[in-house]
Amino acid sequence: MNSSTISEASTALVLGGGGSLGNAWVIGVVAGLAEAGLDVTGADLVVGTSAGSTAAAQLAGTSPAQLLADILAAAPAPGRSGPGPMHPGRSHLETTDGIIASARNAEDMRRAMGAWALGFDAASDPDAQAGWRDTVGSRFSPHTWPSTRLLITAVDADTGEPVVFDSESGVELVDAVAASCAGGFAYGIGERRYLDGGYRSNAENADLASGSDRVLVLSPFGGRTRLPLGWRLDLDTQVEDLRAHGARVETIFPDSVAVAVFGDNMMDLSKRPAAARAGYEQGRALAPGLIEFWVGSNDGNSVELT
């Protein structure tokens, strides 16, 4: 499926990327909302990108309360957990920042990012590919696509073309999520290789909720973008476009407590319980103000919630 997919759903839940801590925060927010009386897991459409694609798959098969409990009960895991096999030398962020800075436009950036990802040894190593698939698959169950509509974003590393997987794409859910989360190397599905869905447009890809009446966006990165604003791929621009087409939009960004927990390493597994708790408290606090939005009339307003 290509990036022009349009949803006819009345409610859409957009789960943005943000590493291990972003995933925990998203789960916490959804659990907090549910605890306070607002279950958003019944959205007509769910869009998942990178860590948000993992959260979407997790929420499709397990209650948010159970997912939260699992995070809080997990044994302490100090240190970092990268998104997969990584290049030695320059850091992932330094390298990708350089690619973005050198790109003429988004298409050029995606092609260059794909070429870089294909240079990883893991892109052609069957054991590394299988290991990444197993790692991703261990995070959620069942591995079947849900009956409700779920869109998982990625980028074709061979062509630079944006990609959106769904239940009709002929791709297993585990593979779709593994592709969307492949931030450090290209993940193979059949004859094609894919990389992180955050490079499609941004960490949220909220444009895929076009056609929905009400859109709730959970953004672990707080709507920030690394791409030039002139490319008009940022979340603010996408929200403006959704509103212009009649959607009512709410965005939930991490509050000061969550931001302090995140620090400068969104991959620090030791902080997952704290990130989930911060999200949970945010969700509980925000739920009363969101209930009317989620089930009420469409007045075209957009509010940023922190």
Automatic annotation (TrEMBL):
GO terms for molecular function: hydrolase activity. Keywords: Hydrolase, Lipid degradation, Lipid metabolism. It comes from the Bacteria. Residues 13-209 form the PNPLA domain. The active site is at S50 (nucleophile), D196 (proton acceptor). A motif (DGA/G) lies at residues 196-198. A motif (GXSXG) lies at residues 48-52. The keyword Lipid metabolism applies. A motif (GXGXXG) lies at residues 17-22. InterPro entries: Acyl_Trfase/lysoPLipase (IPR016035), NTE (IPR050301), PNPLA_dom (IPR002641). GO terms for biological process: lipid catabolic process. This is Patatin-like phospholipase family protein.
